[in-house]
Predict the 3D structure of the following.
Amino acid sequence: MSASKAKVNQADIPVAQQHKFKWTDVLVQVGLVLWAIICLFPVYWMFTFSLKSNEEIFGANVMGLPQNWLWQNYTRALNVGHMGQYFLNSLIVTVVSIIFVLLAAIMATYAMTRLQWKGRKRMNSFFMLGLTIPIHAAIVPLYTTLSRVGMLNTYWALIIPYSAFSLSMGILISIGFMGDIPYDLDEAAFLDGCGVWGIFLRVIAPLMLPAVSTVGIYTFLQCWNELMFATVFISKEAYKTLPVGIQGLSGQYTTEWGPIGAALAMATLPTLLVYIFLSKQIQESFIAGAVKG
């Protein structure tokens, strides 16, 4: 009986309306494919750009595949352009900054949301003021301070500012997640004999893993692509990061753009890998942070 009703209901739908639904789906799929092509084209262009000579880049083969695949551009970028050293410097600065931001953000959030003490709301407001200060507005006072304490041309000249300017957003993200953790878990852990640190390490920290991934990705993007601080605070070759090193590959009179494209590809690769392997986790963490109760 239900099958006959389904047939009747299907027959009652006008043919034009059925075609309309199908054409709508087709248009949506076509739009998504076009958008994917638009988003992926810069990656394709950068990869092919890194394997061409100047004649192909500025000639008739701007968009097509390389006629001669110049893999030696990557070797020249690593050896002549010192991209290996710049990559290592960026990795050190970024990883240490992420560790500092994660530790400070999670612990500060725990203190301001789970512990009762006078002035915690004012302290939260103080941290949130960091979101209103542009990172490049502090170049002059930071340069003066770092110069007086002898930290210029060191890793710490970048790690400390990067961590400080990423901390406010890290706390803001962490507050959204920690607010969803029931206080009953704290009380149960306290009854079992856990102190403040025990509750934090055994209850709160494991439940904050989605926030950790979100804050880590945000801090990574902030540190890995930053140019202004790295240009002003670092002048020695031994401590330059990737953005500064790539900028220095462009000569005053003649420039070989193939090795520059190879350096850009190497600098972009970590960001692409982070997106490929962690995009689903980041999306789920944002959804989890948006759901209350």
About this structure: Residues 1-8 have pLDDT under 50 and may be disordered. The chain has two domains: 2-49, 80-290.
